[in-house]
Amino acid sequence: EVQLVESGGGLVQPGGSLRLSCAASGFTFSSYSMNWVRQAPGKGLEWVSYISSSSSTIYYADSVKGRFTISRDNAKNSLYLQMNSLRDEDTAVYYCARGEDLGTTVLPFFDIWGQGTMVTVSS
Amino acid sequence: DIVMTQSPDSLAVSLGERATINCKSSQSVLYSSNNKNYLAWYQQKPGQPPKLLIYWASTRESGVPDRFSGSGSGTDFTLTISSLQAEDVAVYYCQQYYSTAFTFGPGTKVDIK
């Protein structure tokens, strides 16, 4: 079964750091780009970051650029998001999502999503 | 960044009736080299992650019921549920993947009338 499982969320004070992980299974992880998408309580979806299959290409939303770092370990089938200098507005459920481009080598849509991990930034 | 808008914000439709959601992008998401619109639709039920319904504006994801259909090109797109079922109650989001901001629309909530 194709699956993504996030972990690492929790309560952190403003200015603090947190590292999220996403464990992939049921597919060849190294062949797919990956993304982080977040959803603040009661709000819509916001894309956070993208990493290509080989880690050669990385993108960030302006709202997290310079504070968040995406990475992956293809040997461990894992995706990560290092979050530093956290702010109240970073409070959200964070989803990892697989990117699928069907071989077009252009940007992907997101075909598989994890259940999410909650990050709460509060003093 | 490409801005995505959706209308209406919410709608209530009787069981078995048609539901139509509109999505508009601030610039074209039609990729000229392959003539594909880089527009996806997702369904999110309460307490669940989003689920991919439609990609390339009109291609239904495997396993998605054929009552869901997508149409449109360029900047204007539509998601249609031809015969609303109780299990279709959800928030629906459009998303562009033409540019690296991967922006989502604000969502449309669909309920039963």
Note the main attributes of this structure.
heterodimer, A: 123 residues, mainly beta, 7-stranded mixed sheet, 4-stranded antiparallel sheet, B: 113 residues, 6-stranded mixed sheet, 0% helix
Question: Can you give a write-up of this model?
Answer:
The complex is a heterodimer of chains A (123) and B (113). With 123 residues, chain A is mainly beta. Helix content of chain A is 0%, strand content 52%. Chain A has no helices and 11 strands. In chain A, the strands form 2 sheets. In chain A, strands 2, 4, 5, 6, 9, 10 and 11 form a 7-stranded mixed beta sheet that branches. Chain A is globular. The N and C termini of chain A lie far apart (39 Å). Chain B is built from no helices and 12 strands. Helix content of chain B is 0%, strand content 50%. In chain B, 38% of the residues are buried. In chain B, strand 9 and strand 10 (76-81) form a beta hairpin. The A-B interface holds A 35, 37, 44-47, 50, 59, 61, 95, 97, 100, 104, 106-111, 113-116 and B 31, 34, 36, 38, 40, 42, 44, 48-52, 55-56, 61, 93, 95, 97-107.
β-sheet strand percentage of chain B: over 45%
**Largest pleated sheet of chain A:** 7 strands, mixed
The fraction of residues assigned to DSSP E strands of chain A is over 45%
- Helices of chain A, by number, come to 0
Query: What's the story with the biggest beta sheet of chain B?
Result: 6 strands, mixed
What is the rounded distance between the termini of chain A? Answer: 39 Å
Mean pLDDT of chain A: 96
Rg of chain B, nearest Å? 13 Å
Helical content class of chain A:
under 10%
Structural class of chain B: mainly beta
Largest inter-chain contact set: A-B, 23 and 28 residues
Element string of chain A (H = helix, E = strand): EEEEEEEEEEE
Shape verdict of chain A: globular
Blueprint (SSEs and pairs):
The complex is a heterodimer of chains A (123) and B (113).
Chain A: E1 3-7, E2 10-12, E3 18-25, E4 33-39, E5 45-51, E6 58-60, E7 68-73, E8 78-83, E9 92-100, E10 109-113, E11 117-121
Parallel strand pairs in A: 2-11
Antiparallel strand pairs in A: 1-3, 3-8, 4-5, 4-9, 5-6, 7-8, 9-10, 9-11
Chain B: E1 4-7, E2 10-13, E3 19-25, E4 30-31, E5 36-37, E6 39-44, E7 51-55, E8 59-60, E9 68-73, E10 76-81, E11 90-96, E12 108-112
Parallel strand pairs in B: 2-12
Antiparallel strand pairs in B: 1-3, 3-10, 4-5, 6-7, 6-11, 7-8, 9-10, 11-12
